[in-house]
Amino acid sequence: MCYMIRSLFIPILIILNSCANAQSWEPAVILPKHGSGFIMNTDLVCLNDSCLIAAWDQDTSNNMYTDNIFVSIKNNNTWTNPVTLSESNVECSAPRICVDQNGIVHIIWGVNSIGFIGRVDKLAYSFWNGSSWSSFEYIASNATISEGSYYISCDTIGNLHIMYGNETAPDPTKRIRHIWRIGNTWYGPEVVDGSPDFHFIIDSLSITRLTYQNALLPNHNNDVYYNHLDSTCGSWFGPYVVHYSDNLDTLSYWPRIVVDHQLRKHVCWSEDLNNDILAEQILYSFSDDDSNWSNSEDVTGNLNLALMIICSAMIVDSFNNIHIAYGYYADSNLTQGCIGYQCRQNSTWSTPYIISQSVTCLGTARLALDNNILHIIWVADTLGDKYVCYRRKQLTAVEEQKNIPMFLNIVPNPVKNTVKLLFAVSTTGFARIQLFDVMGRKIMAKSLLLNNAGIHSVMLDLSNIAAGTYFLVVKTDNNSFSKPLIKLND
Fold it and tell me: Cα dihedral sign for 422, 472, 406, 399?
């Protein structure tokens, strides 16, 4: 019998002084800029703490349209001069960027060749192999996409996934499209439930998590929904209701989703309390399964007097703390903007901390995380000119071994070949992983040394095991977990 096993330790820690401590944030840095012209949107990806890649759109022709996409790379403490990726004389906007498990950076942006304000009709794609950027190619052509209503993510085996909102789809409940790239070949588009106001990620188990608001349906202006795509069977499950209110005067916007290391789903979104298209607060909900979501929490608290709050970014650290960034405005002209930041630790949200420093900011920000260093990027307006700004902070922690929640997750299940186990233990020592058939016969056994308490991830290759129903058992000195596992034919 041939099987493969790999363990990844994820420590259970409690963050100290890492949520809204002003002293822990390093001073802001302004990135190099190509000439003059305003900037609207930016994005950020982290290869490691010494190497980050930032992307933004910029109006280099002073025609009031962003017509170029630029990238800058941070090596150690220095940002390089920006390099342009897009073609000239075409309106380009809202870059989205991600990195795969091989360190290849992928980027998409919107292209408006029809001149319709606030829309793009195709997406452009390029990648960085560590030394140079590829020539861009057009994808998702002949579409009607809201500017910025698209995202890109990589799964654990290197496939690339893009989702975008199709504004003119005839069915208002199915206005999300999914395209994917395997090798050098693009597939799709696949029609997906949801509205163009959405967000998606692919988690560590290669399950696609999607959340969206449903303002396109009568009497559902304030609903937030969640779907997920199981990569093992290629089927979507849901929608599940994350947030619902009988108050038809409220509206929900800009949802964001993350999944932590215990597979808990977390969703934040902006909430318009007065039906005036100006969201005044950010709400939050979580789910341990898919269908049962917690009651909504008010995140921003005393910022509720702001006239506009835009939920921009959300990320989870290795300690399962949730970090969010948002833009908010205090004036009716939406010119006095700030960037706010908060962290959820031990079920409690920190008080808001203002990231931006004495300058007017646009309402978007992006977060990235590596080696427990949190990075943030945003667009600031300084003396009438716009720049991309960057800050970072170290997440400090002390180890906390008690009250660690014990669990065992098996994904995918059913499985064809490779399965991932995710389990938590409260002590160090050996873990014994065993697989039994329905007759109680031991089919597989393996011991694993756990040098740390906390969450561990293990990959098992079951390709040589016959199809059928089995029971997977994980035993430690203090705990025992058991769950059924269904093996499918390849």
Answer: negative
- Cα distances from 180 to residues 95, 121, 151, in angstroms, run 18, 18, 12
Instruction: Specify if 119 maps to a domain.
Output: yes
CA torsion, ordered 398, 256, 379, 251, to nearest 10 deg? -130
429 and 280 share one domain: no
- Terminus-to-terminus CA distance in the chain, angstroms? 16
Place of tokens 């597979």: 263
Binning the chain into helix, strand and coil, the percentages to the nearest 5 are 0, 55, 40
Residue 350 — φ and ψ, nearest 5°?
-70, 165
- Judge whether 95 and 55 are in contact, CB under 8 Å: yes
Look up the domain containing 445 and give its range.
399-487
Contact criterion met (CB below 8 Å) for 371 and 347: no
Question: pTM of this prediction?
Answer: 0.79
Q: Are strands 408-411 and 418-425 parallel, antiparallel or unpaired?
A: antiparallel
In a domain, 1, yes or no: no
CB count within 10 Å of CB 369 equals: 18
203 belongs to a structural domain = yes
Successive 10-residue mean pLDDT values, the chain, 490 residues: 37 42 78 83 84 88 77 89 86 92 91 81 93 92 85 88 86 85 91 88 81 63 80 77 75 88 88 74 91 91 66 87 86 69 90 76 82 88 77 68 59 82 76 88 86 76 90 82 84
Compute CA distances 486 → 62, 408, 439, 461, 490, whole Å. Answer: 60, 15, 15, 14, 12
Task: Please tell me whether the peptide bond between 82 and the residue prior to it is cis, using omega within 30 degrees of 0.
Answer: no
The reply to whether 372 and 453 lie within a common domain is: no
Q: Which amino acid is at 151?
A: Y
